[in-house]
Amino acid sequence: MKNLFKPFVTLTACMLLIIGITRAQAPQAITYQAQARDNSGNPIINQNISLRFSIHDLTAVGTVVYKETQSTTTSSIGLFNVNIGQGTILIGTFSSINWGGGSKFIQVEMDATGGVSYVNMGTQQMLSVPYALYSQSSSGSWSLLGNSGTFDGTNFIGTTDNVPLSFKVFNQKAGKIDNVLLNSFYGFQSGNANTTGNSNSSIGYQSLLLNTTGDQNTAFGAGALLNNVAGDFAVAIGYRSQYYANNTVSAFNNWNTSIGWQSLRGSTTPANNTGTFNTAVGAQALLNNSTGTYNTGTGYGALSLNTTGSFNTANGYQVLLNNLGNNNTGTGYNALTANTTGIYNAAFGDDALKNNSTGTNNTALGTNTLPLTTVSNYNTAVGASAGAIRNNGGFNTFVGHAAYATADGFSNSTCIGDNASMTASNQVRIGNGSVNSIGGQVGWTTLSDARFKRNVKNNVHGLDFILQLKPVTYNIDVAGIYRFVGKDLATIGKDAADSETQSKTILQSAEEKGKIVYSGFLAQDVEELAKRIGYDFSGVDAPKNENDYYGLRYAEFVVPLVKAIQEQQALIEDQKKSIAEVKWQNEQLKAENGAFKSDIEKIKAQLGMEIKAEK
Fold it and tell me: Which of 196, 396, 533, 594 has the largest count of CB atoms under 10 Å?
């Protein structure tokens, strides 16, 4: 069959006219009008015919970007009208044709019998006017390839009536600016389910996806606050930040703020996430928090595994990473990172209390303080590496750089000073081996109250103890003391910022102390003497373990000294009595001798004799 229809110029004019008319309604179609004729030029009247339209890209034989079929009936003079774009689609979609992306050609095929044996009627270029709706130069429209000649404040994309502006991608919600509920949603499926929720802002794929009635939420990032349904006052910034936020339909005051990749993501069961007033800043900060409240986590992984713990503060990489307890504070890389159920701990400094798990009420201030202590309670460490090399017991105090215990598990002990060491439980150590002076304005007070003393006995040894003591002079082997407690004097201070100067200062102090001549006793001699005479003398501080060393409490020597003086005084008093008695006896003898002498004189006078007395 031969293609017999009106000249194409006429068809084109008809197409333009109808498109111009239908633009106001913006249909996705082009009206096509033609007259069907047979081979003899006679109109095909009142007959059912089939048509197939193809739109080629760029050239007459270019890629078919759209194809459809239609059936229609001719009029009494052979005319027919169809809307291209509303037929049975074979290829593509009419709305997706890129009209501004180069020339387009339309091919028409027809079967005059109404069947599917189509005959090509020809292919003709579509001039620019038919798709002026999409053209850059079309007045009052926006081109897919951008516009020029716009005026700020005059040209815009939006609405001129009191109606929200919505966006779609793949025919699904992709944004909405709501001037009624005051919501702003941007991103594919962002705010997709919102009904009455107001004053919300979201940017990103599926941000606030399930929110229906929640108010005043802010979600920036793909999946941010995705499961929130009725929660209010949340701020989530970052990929899947608060992703599993509470999804119950009852109004819920969230008050959580999270910034960072998966920050405050929550339990995978959204209904369990009832924790409020939490602040998470950093990737996976407070990642698994569910019911915990009033927590603050700043830094990658801070409080990451916390679920129920509350009132915790973590600042730094993986601080309080495994925490489940309450009222802990950690600042610094890996501080309290292993803490699980421990409570009321405070750690400030890299690796401070990093291995504490269930210990409570510990305080660590300084880099690497109490890093190996695990389950103990009420320890305090102040200074870089204080309490660092042992898993310490409880109730200990370490003050000073590298103050330490010589073995695990000591308790209720205190050591103060750079590299000062505790060597047993229940002791206090002040200063290291290089210290050569400890003092103050007044003497040390030892508590002594009769109300709290039991089994008081007068059995203190005196002269028998004091007279056998062996006072000596001596020098201190400072390096030997350091070796005994597990330190090398040559390496002390090497970890300081100015390690060379610090090490030299320590060595010099030790050398000067080694030259001082001290007076005192040897603890082993005193201990042996006390045992030998059966005296339970408290002045000997004997080693409590193999890591401890001897000491003497010189103040304790005052007591046996007083006893010795008392014993001496008793002897003196006895001697004084003896002397007085002897003196009295002498006086009696003198008196008797005088009387005897008088009697002799009388006898001599009577006898008239001279007797020579011999003194």
Answer: 396
| Interatomic CA distance for residues 130 and 225, integer angstroms | 46
The secondary structure element, H or E, covering residue 501 is helix 499-515
Q: In Å, what is the CA distance from 292 to each residue of 202, 275, 327, 511?
A: 25, 5, 11, 57
Instruction: Yes or no: say if 192 and 206 are a contact pair by the CB < 8 Å rule.
Output: yes
Name the residue among 378, 370, 327, 326 with its Cα closest to residue 348: 370
What gap in Å lies between CA 22 and CA 16, rounded to an integer? 10
Residues 6+ apart with CB under 8 A from 262: 238, 239, 240, 241, 243, 283, 284, 287
Strand pairing of 252-253 and 30-35?
unpaired
Structure tokens that stand for 177 in this block: 């600016």
CA 525 to chain centre: 56
293: tokens are: 């409240």
Distance CA 191, CA 169 (A): 14
Contact 116, 50 (CB under 8 A): yes
Question: Can you say whether residue 321 is alpha, beta or left, with left for phi > 0 and alpha for psi between -120 and 50 degrees?
Answer: alpha
pLDDT of amino acid 218: 98
Phi first, then psi: give them for residue 307, nearest 5 degrees: -120, -50
Q: Is 412 left (phi over 0), alpha (psi -120 to 50) or beta?
A: left
Number of CB atoms found within 10 A of residue 351's CB: 23
Q: Give the pLDDT confidence score for residue 498 in this predicted structure.
A: 54
Q: Where are the beta strands (DSSP E) in 46-200?
A: 48-57, 64-73, 79-84, 88-91, 104-111, 119-126, 165-169, 172-177, 184-186
- Cα-based angle 4, 8, 12 (whole degrees, multiple of 5): 135
Q: What is the DSSP letter of 25?
A: G
Q: Torsions phi, psi of 564, nearest 5?
A: -65, -40
Tell me: pLDDT of 299 over 90. Answer: yes
| Alpha carbons 435 and 492: distance in angstroms, whole number | 14
For residue range 254-281, what is the model confidence (pLDDT) as tens digits? 999 999 999 999 999 999 999 999 999 9
- What is the biggest distance separating any 2 CA atoms in the chain, rounded to whole angstroms? 217
Tens of pLDDT along 92-110? Answer: 998 888 877 788 999 999 9
